[in-house]
Amino acid sequence: MAYDIDMIKKVYTQMAERVEKAREVVGKPLTLSEKILYTHLWDVEAEKAYERGKDYVNFSPDRIACQDATAQMALLQFMQAGKPKVEVPTTVHCDHLIQAKQGAAKDLKRANETSNEVFDFLGSVSNKYGIGFWKPGAGIIHQVVLENYAFPGGMMIGTDSHTVNAGGLGMVAVGVGGADAVDVMAGMPWELKFPKLIGVKLTGKLNGWTAAKDVILKVAGILTVKGGTGAIIEYFGEGARSMSCTGKGTICNMGAEVGATTSTFGYDDSMERFLRATDRNDVADAANNVREHLTGDDEVYANPEQFFDEVIEINLSELRPHLNGPFTPDLATPISEMKEKAKKNDWPIKVDWGLIGSCTNSSYEDLTRAASIAQQALDKKLKPKSDFGINPGSEQIRFTAKRDGLLKIFEDLDATVFTNACGPCIGQWDRSDRKGEEKNTIVHSFNRNFSKRADGNPNTHAFVGSPEMVAAIAISGRLDFDPTRDKLMNEDGEEVMLDEPKGIELPTNGFEVEDAGYVAPYEDGSGVTIKVAEDSERLELLTPFEPWNGDNLLGAKLLIKAHGKCTTDHISMAGPWLRYRGHLDNISNNCLIGAVNAFNMKTNFVKSQLTGEYGGVPDTQREYKAKDIPTVVVGDHNYGEGSSREHAAMEPRHLGVKVVIVKSFARIHETNLKKQGMLGVTFDNESDYDLIQEDDTFNFIDLENFAEGKQLTVEIVHADGTKDVIKTNHTYNSNQIEWYKEGSALNLIKKLNA
């Protein structure tokens, strides 16, 4: 039986009436996305048609999921909210703090020893506040959610950008910062700008080497890393219905890489099969009763141009395998064109590692398709030229895959099977074969391939592909290998070709697991005492941020003008820094150390206007803070792209940065800045970015009149005494301006609960 089945049945019981009311107020047939949005309004019934991309709307999500790295800060904030228990079903999943090094058993043992303080903290907070706890080794949060909690037509939020994975089971699932999650945990509405809608019509059927992953790799190439910002991507058509549920999850998962609010598919037979295979017959039966409301209306899909803001059509029968990268997930290359493109761009051809797994591609079907290629290497006497690493998605998948002999196939190729955790995908990888910054290539089935992300090396060229394509390329050892037409030389000196991959959607003998890793919370957690040692390096109780004094902000100094791509990885690196995610002051020592200074094209090397000397960004900022001097960060397009980690907003706030001015923001990061009481604005004229000089001082001369829809004027004073006066835009509504005034959204919650 499913978790929280009564909640799910309640959603379905109310759905027909709410959908009909939404159709009435909107005045036309509805997309699936609109049905879910309008049936999860905080005010229960739809009373008006919301304008896409403009209206802020309050929603009532059904559940929350948190991974261990972001859960620390989220729960530290919730502890200040004055609530005895979470108001909606919530889970914590320990998947980020396990480093991949020697293999599953040793790596998990080491993680439990080195991070026991954090795991104990998360476990005790979960017990106290009624939160379900998935212990280390249980699996990657999004795969565990798909197998246990996701349900068609539901709405969930999660403190990880790839929460969107649950769209593969027909949800509107959105990645948020911890402060957003705290709002919902505390029984408050969740605010979101009503999304625009992008429709992707899938025709035909996947065949041969082409996988579900190739759909989103193609879409990423079309939309780019910011083309989906502020939008839900809704997939439909015969091609969508022909794919497996976990394949749909893969597509939705990587929708985060185009900036989409989320992605989703309508309920169909593949979702029903998956629900029943994962012991959720009760959910499948309940969903079947409201099946017509769990997908878009027929008129929508018949004439999508009339109902979506943008429509993309992809013929799956003609789609070919892709590799995306390096350094950005939207640089899409059909595998047939890689030979020419790699040579032109001087990408290293030799492939050192093939990594299979992550929240994007770690399902049973993924493992079977990759294993079918690995088995051919054994049968055809092909010795892999690259190292292999495998991360199963959950303990249920690992146990079942081991039972069915899949893991042994990889082990026979000398692959390392890592823990059921994120591992190399998030930089939790102690890569033994390289310790310097040599130029090299890896291929993986992950979602992101930003510089330094997997192994900390800025010269590692990472390429994203399907698990079966990763397996084939790792066996060949060459980036330019095209398994659809290229031959390989085996150990007997014979030329052989790899056959097309074969996959099994769901295990023939069903899923099996001895200990899934779930720990239910106490019925009454009031007696649980949460302890945080004063001298802890890993955890630190939070001190509320100071409210705004109501005055104009004058005399602010430039901290850094970031050049080009500045993701949350650049602002708050993961990898070894994950150990400090629960200690705001310690982790602030990585603040913006990956951002490229536009004035010298170096990282972590900025000029102090106090001394004229150059130093690290955090050290320089701490000097400004010590003298109570406000500072400004300037950035380029899509600033804050990537992870949902709110540390990228909390660290500058903690260190005394007052304002971030950029050409454009990534959605989650902009919200995180607002939640933490930061001022985030965009250049009205993007070319004003070029006016910013290294020794500039900023005066926000009309901030005291901060109001919804009103531009803010900034006076930029240069070192030679000349000035430029520019206009900046913002998206703060009246409620968000109150967050700013109070110093943070959490401060406002505490004030309301006092």
UniProtKB/TrEMBL annotation:
PROSITE patterns: ACONITASE_1
Protein's name according to its UniProt entry: Aconitate hydratase A
Superkingdom of the organism of origin: Bacteria
CDD domains: AcnA_Mitochondrial
EC number in record: 4.2.1.3
InterPro entries according to UniProt: Acoase/IPM_deHydtase_lsu_aba, Aconitase/IPM_isomerase, Aconitase_4Fe-4S_BS, Aconitase_mito-like, AconitaseA/IPMdHydase_ssu_swvl
UniProt-listed PANTHER family: ACONITATE HYDRATASE B (PTHR43160), ACONITATE HYDRATASE, MITOCHONDRIAL (PTHR43160:SF3)
Catalytic reaction equation(s): citrate = D-threo-isocitrate
Taxonomic lineage: Bacteria, Pseudomonadati, Bacteroidota, Flavobacteriia, Flavobacteriales
MF GO annotations: aconitate hydratase activity
Gene source species: Mesonia aestuariivivens
NCBIfam families: aconitase_mito, PRK07229.1
Keywords from the UniProt entry: Lyase, Tricarboxylic acid cycle
